[in-house]
Amino acid sequence: MAPPKIEINSYGEPSVFGLVFGQATLQHSVAVWDIWLGLSERLLDGRPQGGVKALCYHRALKFLRKANSLVFKVDLHCHSTASDGLLPAAEVARRALQNGVELFSLTDHDDLGGLSAARSVVNEAGAGFVTGVEVSIEWGGLQIHVLGFNFDAEDAALNAGLASIRSGRVNRAQRMAAELEKVGIPGCFEGAMRYAENPNLISRSHFARYLVEIGVCEDVRSVFESYIVPGKPGYVDHRWATLEESVNWITGAGGVASVAHPGRYKLTKSEMRRFLDEFKSVGGRAIEVVSGSHSAENVAVFSRIAREFSFMASCGSDYHGPGESYMELGALAPLPSDLVPVWKAF
Ligand SMILES: [Zn+2]
Ligand SMILES: [Zn+2]
Questions:
Q1: Does residue 23 contact residue 74 with C-beta atoms inside 8 Å?
Q2: C-alpha pair distances (Å), 224 with each of 24, 161, 221, 227
Q3: Among the four 33, 210, 225, 262, which has the fewest Cβ within 10 Å?
């Protein structure tokens, strides 16, 4: 039978019989068609003609998900008001589903408070939900983020570890405000707190929003160039978790640890390798290859690294809210097809 007509919908996505293949390329869609035909013939005992039409899309999709991870729309990195996102967890999950995400993880900074609300929304829609968190650690004087996936959210050691990171945040915020006052910007603690739905998760993003509000900077991105980063006004040191602690908390709770947006850290090539060696030696198994804050070059570099270190690959938009993100939920390019996606381990 000839392949079906592949149509391009208004989002530029290829679709066959109305079944959208997300960011997959046309070539992938043709491969999917082969699988689909094979499936329909098997299900319907050699009645391919009628079979294809009769095949339930959902049933086909379920099979296709297993057979070809490329047709699967995944977003495993985003934030809600449980940390520094702008939308409540349930709304973030709904938005992801509206954008066609089929496997979703909410990864708030150092807090699991949004997981159950997000999980109910995703489960109700019949999509896949994965527990997630983004742990703030310090390594070599830099703040680095380690993602955790698919862990037991009730695990006592993980919860205690995250609580220990959170408890330092309010104190850090007060010290940041004192530093900003020294350069003539008063009232930042109260101002930033107004943006923090969860006061224990007060973060630099909340300060950034306040600095934009009072006209110190034009947008959040420029705040992170001129303020509250090392060497600039308003930055203070803070003791975060260590690399080993963060990975132990995640793996101890049955999860998988992945390095978040590795392209964002100011590490030399050799420092990056040292970091990844150490990450692997303490039990880290994945790296975020496709990220809202990665360039195409970053994707190529970290794909190579994933192959070399035998890391699985994760992907996520790092969505924080409307108007504040590099990328919309679910709007990710597919992972390079030869990499092992992290969800193989879920
Ligand atoms: Zn991050
Ligand atoms: Zn993030």
A1: no
A2: 34, 27, 5, 6
A3: 225
**Distance (Å, whole) CA 326 – CA 149:** 22
Ligand 1 centroid to 109 CA: how many Å? 8
**How crowded is the C-beta side of 65, counted as CA atoms within 13 Å?**
16
pLDDT digits 0-9 by tens, 261-311: 999 999 999 999 999 999 999 999 999 999 999 999 999 999 999 999 999
Distance in Å, CA 142 to ligand 1 centroid: 12
Between the CA of 76 and the centroid of ligand 1 the distance, in Å, is 12
Question: For 35, which DSSP code?
Answer: H
Question: How far, in Å, CA of 240 to CA of 249, rounded?
Answer: 14
At the top level of CATH, the class of 169-226 is mainly alpha
Match 């996936």 to its residue by tokens: 149
Q: What is the distance in A from the centroid of ligand 1 to the CA of 246?
A: 14
Q: Right CATH number for 74-156+240-345 from 1.10.10.10, 3.20.20.140, 3.60.20.10, 3.40.50.300? A: 3.20.20.140
Compute, in angstroms, the gap from residue 291 CA to the centroid of ligand 2. Answer: 10
* CA–centroid distance, residue 309 to ligand 2 (Å): 23
Q: pTM of the predicted model, to two decimals?
A: 0.73
How far does the centroid of ligand 2 lie from the alpha carbon of residue 35, in Å?
A: 35
Say which DSSP state 334 is in. P
| C-alpha 26 – ligand 1 centre gap (Å) | 32
Q: How far is the CA of 41 from the centre of ligand 2 (A)?
A: 44
For the segment 151-189, what is each residue's pLDDT rounded down to a tens digit? 999 999 999 999 988 888 888 999 999 999 999 999 999
- Neighbour-count burial of 274, counting CB atoms closer than 10 A to its CB (0-12 exposed, 13-18 middle, 19+ buried): middle
**From ligand 2's centre to the CA of 236, what distance in Å?**
20
